[in-house]
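Key idea: predict the complex, not the pieces.
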Amino acid sequence: MEWLYILMPISGVTIFWPGLIVLGIGVGIIGGFFGMGGAWMVTPGLNILGFPMAFAIGTDIAHMAGKSLISTMRHGRFGNVDYKLGFIMLVGTIVGFEAGAQMIMWFERLGRVEIIVRYLYLVLLAFIAWMVFSDVYIKRKKEKEAKAAGREIDKLATGIEWHKTFQKIKIPPMIHLKTAGIYCSAWLPIMVSFLTGWLAGILGIGGGLIRMPALIYIIGCPTYIAVGTDLFEVMISGLYGAATYTFKGRTELLAALVMLVGAAIGAQIGTVATKYIKGYGIRVAFGCAVIGCAVSIVLKLLPTYFPTIKGLCDATATVTVLGVVSVLSLYIFLKMLAGARKEIAAKKAAAL
Amino acid sequence: MKKLLGKMINLVILAFFLAPHIASAAGGGKEAPIVIVADTRHITGLMAWWANLYNESHLYFALLTILIIPIIGVIFGLIADVVMKKIGIDLSSRELAEH
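Result:
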């Protein structure tokens, strides 16, 4: 069975390559579906496969850039990417990220930076999960009330409607984002991208997990436009990240390319699935992914107080993350399969 | 007083155990940057060339990586497009379902 293992030329480790492909498919599906890079899912997976930590992050970012490119191409053809919004947000994201990174240096001088960051991340994830599920709850309540009153709810109605308040701010220049169908002050996306970039810089993450809900709840993008536009941002930040990590010698290109084989398939499945799963279905699944991520962080925080259970917590965190990836990707895959079958059957029936 | 002095000495000793980097004897001061070198002894051909490029210049290595990733990404994306179209999935439009 030696052919199932491949020697990585830079890190010098031998890796089970089908594992890389499976991991690529899983994160490709989730990334293409939710519009995020998914570093929190890939790093533990690469570690399990035997990657040294020094190379896990760089390799993950390199594959993320390629995967996001594939997903953005597909979302772009569906008309899910608002490029104008993407470019405006890019400026705020870069400046915000740099501000966050500088702030973390300052925290480092104070000490205990890792604990502060993990707690902040946890609070943020709890807030995002609460926001997503209360949005779903309010929407369902509205639907029930409308049904009881004998009328139908508007297809574009949402549960939480904070974006309507934010869009009322009329500080010039005003912009019209045609693809997203939004007319707002240019300062709204700039400030949102600055804040999400700043948080991403502090937390040391790509930011898709924060930017996607911010695009929906603050700017007011439809879910699939938020997914596509966020992926466009992840693609550019991923390329930049890959350049810096590779320059520091921390990327194993061969592994990134093997993962890309799987991610290319996964990204297409995830992206095409947004055709068949409605906006609120995407939001619920996203909420579940956020909870999975939060649980893995709690498990990483526990050994600070109970050092004796560190091994158990690390193993449980890895199992949790990989379990969430497997269940969600299987759910998305099955939904995509059912939708595609329906579409093909409808086409055949129309042709007859 | 003697008790307090004893406690302070214990505390200082504990500090050296908890934070070895502040002890000069443990090599205190700025840490040396880690240099990772690829081992090219057991690889040949393209893999050896790639590992040698890594050892010789991280700049060229980075530039080539940044070129290869998007190109491979686009190629894989186009291949997947062809496969999806063959299956019969409409990849050109998406119905607006809801917000």
